[in-house]
Amino acid sequence: MPERPELDYVVPILARELSGLAIIGLRVDSPVVLRVALREPASEVVPGATIEGVARRAHFVVFALRGAAGRALELVVAPMLAGRFSLEAPTARRTADLALTLALSDGRELRYRDDVQMGKAYVIEAGQRRNVPGLEHVGVDVLDAKSFSRAAFRALAKTRHDQVKVFLMDKSALDAMGNAYADEALFEARVHPKTFVRSLSAEEIDRLHDAIVTVLAEASAEVARRAPPLDEKVRDFLKVRNRHGKPCPRCGSTIRKAGVHGHDAFFCPTCQPDERGSAIVDFRATLRPEAAVVEPPAPAPAPKPARKRHS
Predict the structure, then answer these.
(1) Which residue in 274, 223, 267 sits closest to 249, CA to CA?
(2) Domain that includes residue 260, residue range
(3) How far apart are the C-alpha atoms of 176 and 117, rounded to whole Å?
(4) CB 83 within 8 A of CB 113
(5) Residue 102: helix, strand or coil by DSSP?
(6) Which of 59, 118, 164, 226 lies at a C-alpha separation of 20 to 30 Å from 286?
(7) Using CA atoms, how far apart are residues 198 and 208, in angstroms rounded to an integer?
(8) What are the backbone angles phi and psi of residue 203, rounded to the nearest 5°?
(9) How far apart are CA 100 and CA 10, in angstroms?
(10) At what angle do helices 202-226 and 179-189 cross, to 10 degrees?
(11) 3-state class of 124 per DSSP?
(12) Considering the domain boundaries, does residue 71 fall inside one?
């Protein structure tokens, strides 16, 4: 999914470009992505509304709308795995992954694209965030130094009984990491992704806190520096994510991949050792060829002497 660094880049651009514009048309190419928690269909309430602002809330993009007779609405988009936005001229080619289009009063279109159709767009009354799963209760902002202190992170960790990667990806606890940056933070902190939170030492918890802040802040700065198009995800600077089989940038060992509660996790078995036995890892597979020990084959057993036959 788009994670904190991508959304911190995309959302301010959408806010700058769209605030004050009216929506003059709605086209739904993929009905499965649209959820409407109103009595009326979206086609009756979205066209004619004005976009008053755009904000990020955890992994959601929230469009504040002012509809007919001053009615306050929200269009809430959860991009999930593959969702992305683009601002296009109406004449621009419509791609096969196009899911939702807002025609705007300045002549452009805001297009939401999703080639796997996992993302969702919700139309709700303003403030009725309980109607969107995961939107009402959001965790601590990890880039807010006042609220996300080492002490606050230790207190959160004490309440957890799951594996550390599951904890990092829980948006109701922490705002906000997905698969990619959870892997990067764990690599920076030298913590195995399957480690149970309760088994982390105080020093490891503090190290993980610092890694979360460093990784997300540096990634946000790098994405902003690159200034990619809205629909382009820049992650070629990540150290372990999607680098299975490649050398660790820190120690040279081979990056491994494991499953963690339905998600994949990339890690270095040397920098992030599974010291607590929380996962089964074949460390022999991580040896570089020059470091591997090759044992000679066992000698073949000597043939047994033939038995004499008596007539």
Answers:
(1) 267
(2) 140-287
(3) 21
(4) yes
(5) strand
(6) 164
(7) 14
(8) -65, -40
(9) 17
(10) 130
(11) strand
(12) yes
Q: Residue 131, Cα to own-chain centre: how many angstroms?
A: 22
pLDDT band with cut points at 50, 70 and 90 for residue 81: confident
Q: Are 113 and 150 found together in one domain?
A: no
Please state the φ and ψ torsions of residue 133, each to the nearest 5 degrees. Answer: -55, 125
Across all residues in the chain, what is the average pLDDT?
Answer: 90
Mean pLDDT of 197-206: 96
Q: CA-to-CA distance for 173 and 153, rounded, in angstroms?
A: 10
- The pLDDT of 246-253, averaged and rounded, is 97
Spatial distance between the Cα atoms of 149 and 151, rounded to a whole number of angstroms: 5
Comparing 138-152, 153-167, 199-213, 291-305, the range with the smallest average pLDDT is 291-305
- pLDDT mean over 74-80: 96
Confidence (pLDDT) at 278: 55
Total residue length of the chain:
311
d(CA 232, CA 60): 17
Whether 109 and 150 map to the same domain: the answer is no
Beta strand segments in 58-92, E:
60-66, 72-78, 84-88
Same domain membership, residue 227 and residue 88: no
Mean pLDDT of 246-263: 95
Question: Nearest 5°: phi and psi at 35?
Answer: -125, 130
Question: What is the DSSP pairing of strand 140-141 with strand 174-175?
Answer: parallel
pLDDT in tens, 168-195: 999 999 997 899 999 999 999 999 999 9
